[in-house]
Amino acid sequence: MIQVIAIDLDDTLIAPDKQIPQENIAALQAARDSGIRVVIATARGWFRTEAVYRELQLDTPVIVSSGARILDGVTGEDMMTRELPYAFAKEVAAFCDEMEIASRVYLRQEIWVNDSSIMAYGPPHEQYVAKIGTRLLEAPYQIYARGQRETDLLVERFGLGGEGYSCNVVTYYDGIPEVCILHPQSTKGQALATLCEEWGVLPEEVMALGDSSNDLPMIEWAGIGVAMGWAPERVRERADMVTAPDNPAGVAEAIYHVLEQQKQEAERCNNKALSYDESR
């Protein structure tokens, strides 16, 4: 029986048209009404996740920054953070400054931006900082850049991974690549496994839904991994279930399918119990 549903936001719960279908919201509520914990697992930071979390009226921990952080969603307090090696992070930040790569450096309670034109959140969480590479005094948990040139330069310079870091390149529905530089264990799958271990929940009791390569660790770890119908082929091939490609409410499609299966299984168990009692 599924006890936890982990769900990605962009192009999963939030459809490619940037709206959350009401069917998805209703399906999540139906899952919660049946006793299932719903956990958001997103590449977004908390500052871009909180509004959705509040809209869904959740009370569970939330996985943000692709698994680099787990937060208490009710209070916004850190439960777990995996930081990059400090010296390496300074090197990356300095390279971004030198090559004029617009980037964000994620610290505990702030986001430093080296190009004011990409500022999205504003104070107090986000601030413009010139020459971040020379001013960084603590290890960040993520460095982020968006765009083909930016991604190519960073991957060419640092590769896809090394001692204490991983460069995760993701291309969403809009076709523009992004690179998130994270601790190697900063994955949605690792973060989800950490939460479920604390709750005493086994992988086979978990359903995970996503659409992109950064969702694969949790899709493959969960007992039921679900890929959206518009996900890249490599994601769909490694999922247990794939939603209809023309259904923006693919989340609802998958959740109701599982809820119906569990209902039928419960009815079969009840019928067996009744038959046993009657035969005694």
Q: What tags apply to this protein structure?
A:
Hypothetical Protein, Haloacid Dehalogenase-like Hydrolase, Chain: A, domain 2; five-stranded parallel sheet; elongated; Rossmann fold; alpha/beta
Compact summary:
This protein is α/β, with parallel strands linked by helices and 280 residues long. 37% of the residues lie in helices and 22% in strands.
User: Helix tally?
Assistant: 9
Instruction: Report Rg.
Output: 20 Å
The low-confidence parts are none
Largest sheet: 7 strands, mixed
- What is the oligomer described by this structure? single chain
Secondary-structure blueprint of this entry?
Layout: E1 4-7, H1 22-33, E2 37-40, H2 46-55, E3 61-64, E4 69-72, E5 78-81, H3 86-98, E6 103-106, E7 111-113, E8 126-128, H4 132-135, E9 142-146, H5 148-158, E10 161-162, E11 165-171, E12 177-182, H6 188-199, E13 206-210, H7 216-221, E14 224-227, H8 233-237, E15 241-242, H9 250-279
Parallel strand pairs: 1-2, 1-13, 7-8, 13-14, 14-15
Antiparallel strand pairs: 3-4, 4-5, 6-7, 6-9, 9-12, 10-11, 11-12
Helix pairs in contact: 1-9
What does this 3D model show about the protein?
- There is one protein chain.
- The chain has helices at 22-33, 46-55, 86-98, 132-135, 148-158, 188-199, 216-221, 233-237, 250-279, and strands spanning 4-7, 37-40, 61-64, 69-72, 78-81, 103-106, 111-113, 126-128, 142-146, 161-162, 165-171, 177-182, 206-210, 224-227, 241-242.
- By secondary structure, it is an alpha/beta fold.
- It has 2 domains: 4-81 and 186-267, Rossmann fold (3-Layer(aba) Sandwich); 86-182, Hypothetical Protein, Haloacid Dehalogenase-like Hydrolase, Chain: A, domain 2 (2-Layer Sandwich).
- The protein has a 7-stranded mixed beta sheet, with helices on one face.
- Strand 14 (224-227), helix 8 and strand 15 (241-242) form a beta-alpha-beta unit.
- The mean pLDDT is 92.
